[in-house]
Design goal:
- The protein is of the alpha+beta class and 147 residues long.
- It has five helices and five strands.
- It has a five-stranded mixed beta sheet with strand order 2-1-3-4-5.
- A hairpin with a 2-residue loop joins β4 and β5.
- The longest helix is centred in the N-terminal third of the chain and has 13 residues.
């Protein structure tokens, strides 16, 4: 089954889905894996850190983690090899990290991680132009909008 247009066109805070929606989803997934009240430190790397304040990345992360957010570490000059929009979420105990997850915000709120998480972005539909969509509708006798 193909995703709906609402799945393709998501609304998030800030000017960049990679800088808000992806980190928000990553923080929510991390919390679901680690319920409780253990503090979480977030490190932003590369492009995600370089423009994160202007794109509201910190505000989006704080909104999800709330009082569990121990702090955000900004590493704009450190680029992880897999993707320029990387973040690491770490559980903190006695001031030291003891469990972490590195995840990459790959666009549109989609994520990838070294632990096997890989969400698809783009390429979901065979028809990629309005002309193609209109032709398909004509050939199928289907209206472009629901009746």
């Amino acid at each position: 089954m193909m995703p709906s247009l609402l799945g393709l066109y998501r609304i998030g805070q800030g000017p960049s889905s990679s800088h808000t929606m992806g980190p928000v989803r990553a923080a929510r997934l991390f919390l679901s894996r680690h319920p409780g009240d253990t503090p979480v430190r977030v490190t932003l790397f590369g492009a995600l850190a370089a423009t994160g304040r202007g794109h509201l990345t910190d505000a989006a992360i704080h909104e999800v983690l709330g009082r569990r957010l121990e702090g955000i570490v900004w590493q704009p000059d450190v680029f992880l090899p897999r993707h320029p929009n990387a973040l690491r979420l770490e559980l903190i105990q006695a001031g030291q990290p003891y469990d972490s997850w590195t995840v990459y915000s790959i666009g549109g709120g989609a994520l990838a991680a070294d632990d096997g998480l890989e969400e698809q972005t783009g390429g979901l539909y065979a028809l990629t132009t309005m002309e193609g969509i209109l032709q398909w509708c004509h050939n199928q006798g289907q209206p472009l909008t629901p009746v």
